[in-house]
Design goal:
This protein has 71 residues and is mainly β. The protein has one domain: SH3 type barrels (Roll). 0% of the residues lie in helices and 52% in strands. The protein is built from no helices and seven strands. The strands form two sheets. Strands 6-5-4-3-7 form a five-stranded antiparallel β-sheet, with no helix packed on it. 20% of the residues are buried.
């Protein structure tokens, strides 16, 4: 599910848990910080993406994310 802000095209994808389709620096509630290529970001559900170096798909509850910065 993608969320958007703005009502004038182009609408910009935005979620508080990362930027879908972009590299995002994630800070978890436990203090861990890592980059992630976000594929799904649902603020009420799960965040799914790929984390280097293996680039295998992983997911975790979006509620466990303290902060995120789109790169």
């Amino acid at each position: 599910m993608n969320y958007y802000y703005g009502n004038i095209p182009p609408r910009v994808p935005y979620t508080p848990v990362g930027c879908v389709g972009k590299w995002t620096l994630i800070e978890m509630n436990n203090g861990a910080v890592f980059p992630m290529l976000i594929s799904i970001a649902d603020p009420a559900g799960m965040t799914v993406g790929q984390i280097p170096p293996s680039m295998s798909t992983t997911s975790f509850p979006s509620s466990s994310i303290k902060n995120s910065v789109c790169l």
